[in-house]
Amino acid sequence: MIPYGRQDISNEDIESVIETLKSEFITQGPKVLEFEEAVNKRVGSSYAVAANSATSCLHLACKALELKDNEWVWTSPNSFVASANAALYCKANIDFVDIDPNTYNMSCEKLEEKLAVAKKNNLLPKIIIPVHFGGQSCDMEKIFQLSKEYGFKIIEDASHAIGGEYKGKKIGCCEYSSITVFSFHPVKIITTAEGGIATTNDRILAKKMAMDRTHGIERLNQDHIKNRNSEIWNYQQNRLGFNYRLNDLQASLGISQLKRLNEFIIKRNKIAEFYNKNLSSTGIQLPHVIEDSKSSYHLYPIRVSLLKGGINQKKLFYELRNNNIGVNLHYIPIYRQPYFRKLGFKKGYCEEAERYFKEVISIPIFSKLKNIEQQNIVKIIKEICSDSGL
Ligand SMILES: *Cc1c(COP(=O)(O)O)cnc(C)c1O
């Protein structure tokens, strides 16, 4: 079965991990620092804090912004559950802003309307987590402007989007946000097996995230130690943190993968071009790329219009799977998950996200996807489409 996404590990990647395995540090050590600096340099941020997953980074980010019980966080329903769970870990309330019918990102019009209502009811969010769906940036300029007007903070969930650009700036530079989070899970653009990183330009936020990554502990310098008079203290716990550390083996894989980021983005964009060209005659809605933006193409979602009861999406989905093409679905609206239903969310809450969910299929896109495989995928889709008179 061809998966919808898969890692691309080279011999150099393997060598760099082996090298570290033979070194003194295999937990968090110099390689993690080196990886953080390399990411800063690549995306144009001042600080980076690597952790064992993007989920951990989202949690660290919410904690650093001092998210508290019963405060509100808003995110996109068209995302992986982690975007919302980070808020729930902090005992905050979660809510969802419907998506744009073209980009499938959080809709700025819907956001603006929702903010105006929330202001009247004194229920404005403390944090908004826009998700750069499939690798394409949200309209960050607009969201940033709204954050000034309504006083919320922004965490960009850029789990899909390392290597992407928005208005000439690299995603992750935090021009329009407090913190940006990337994921290095193997289906994402680059991988550390498991891992994530949070970038920021705010020294205090970076310091809090780095502390909370390791139990809320701060290492003390010599002056601090001397000031303790008779007792010897070499570290102190200031906050209730976690063990969210990335290790040096993962970081060395990350350093090596980051060097290949440009190559990966070029390959993914080439595959997207191939699909764009060869599927344009099928009547299927292809991904819409906004101006002034470069997608990292984590996903290639195609959209089949809804005929009787969604038969087309289902037919295409199962026929592709029967042909060993591991198509997937991104995403079931988060609030439709049983856990979120228990929080009180109802089917139909975000109309556009639900309409999209009933029509979309993610077809394979990853750097190692062969030409012959791409051709086969296109061929099968075309056959099914002409069968169903699309
Ligand atoms: C993958 C993903 C995450 C979580 O990433 P992990 O590194 O697996 O924790 C969060 N948000 C989105 C949008 C994702 O796709």
Structural class: alpha/beta
Q: At the fourth CATH level, what is the homologous superfamily of the largest domain?
A: Type I PLP-dependent aspartate aminotransferase-like (Major domain)
Uncertain runs are none
CATH class of the largest domain: Alpha Beta
Q: How many domains would you count in the coordinates?
A: 2
CATH level-two architecture of the largest domain? 3-Layer(aba) Sandwich
Indicate the overall shape: globular
- What's the average pLDDT? 95
Verbal overview:
The chain has helices at 11-21, 30-43, 54-64, 82-89, 108-120, 140-150, 203-213, 222-227, 248-258, 261-279, 311-322, 338-342, 351-357, 371-387; strands at residues 47-51, 72-75, 93-96, 127-129, 153-157, 165-166, 169-170, 179-183, 196-200, 217-219, 235-237, 293-294, 300-303, 360-363. The protein is α/β, with parallel strands linked by helices. The chain folds into two domains: 2-260, Aspartate Aminotransferase, domain 2 (3-Layer(aba) Sandwich); 262-387, Aspartate Aminotransferase, domain 1 (Alpha-Beta Complex). It has a seven-stranded mixed β-sheet, sandwiched between helices. It has a three-stranded antiparallel β-sheet with strand order 7-6-12, with no helix packed on it. A two-stranded antiparallel ribbon has the order 10-11. The two termini are 26 Å apart. The mean pLDDT is 95. The site of pyridoxal-5'-phosphate (PLP) has 14 residues, from α3 and α4. Pyridoxal-5'-phosphate binds next to α3 and α4.
